[in-house]
Amino acid sequence: MKENTIPLTRNATSGSISDAPPGRPPDGLADRIARRALARRADQYADEVRALLDAARAVMRRCGTSARPRVADIVAAAGLSNEAFYRHFRSKDALVAAIMEDGTERLCGYIAHQMAKEPTPEGQVRRWVEGVLSQARDADTAATTLAVMWNAQSVGEGFLAGPPSATGLLADLLRAPYARLGSAAPDLDASLAAHATVGRLADHLWRRTPPTDDDFDHLTRFCLRTVTPQGGRE
């Protein structure tokens, strides 16, 4: 009497048991194992990227505007290797651009949350101004922001739009309140206001002067006057 056996593989067309290579699991199981391995690797890689971003930001803060950090300094601070660095970034410029993008996304998330608390477009513009200029109020935050912006000025190769900038994403947040205020060109008005406000932020950062309440009030009034009403006339 033959022992009962459980076939592990069958011929796709005939349904008969096939001679599969020994030790090869069925496709479904292979896919599940591969997905688990990829998930573990994705988590590991995400941790590496976050470590590199945080380390680079800290090294830039330490170097200030007197020297640009080396890749060796960054990987040492992150506790990683050059291989790990170049697994995620093709160059130091690419890392700087990622830091700018990461910081801008965080800032925009914070500002959007604050703007959502205001029922009026005027109040939302005020919150937006406060959020942008707040980067210059705390001394440590200001020093880090200045160092990152200074390093970003040298980033150009491989970036068709020029050095990475925060103004585009920040301007996006102003489009809705500007439209509610009756702007005939909310995209353009928001872009102009963002460029002016980020420029003013840079002035505060370079001069090491935190903005005052009067600065917030004045810039808020300016951003509200930036709105071009329907018909294109003030």
Can you characterise this structure?
- With 234 residues, the protein is an all-alpha fold.
- The chain has two domains: 64 residues, Arc Repressor Mutant, subunit A (Orthogonal Bundle), CATH 1.10.10; 142 residues, Tetracycline Repressor, domain 2 (Orthogonal Bundle), CATH 1.10.357.
- 65% of the residues lie in helices and 0% in strands.
- The chain is built from nine helices and no strands.
- Helix 4 crosses helix 6.
- The longest helix has 37 residues.
Give a brief rundown of this model.
With 234 residues, the chain is an all-alpha fold.
List the main descriptive attributes of the protein structure presented here:
mainly alpha, Arc Repressor Mutant, subunit A, 9 helices, 65% helix
The assigned CATH architecture of the largest domain is Orthogonal Bundle
Number of strands: 0
The figure for the number of domains is 2
Question: What order do the SSEs take from the amino end to the carboxyl end, as H and E?
Answer: HHHHHHHHH
Architecture blueprint of SSEs:
Blueprint: H1 27-63, H2 71-78, H3 82-88, H4 92-115, H5 121-133, H6 139-152, H7 167-180, H8 186-207, H9 213-225
Helix pairs in contact: 1-2, 1-4, 1-6, 4-5, 4-6, 5-7, 5-9, 7-8
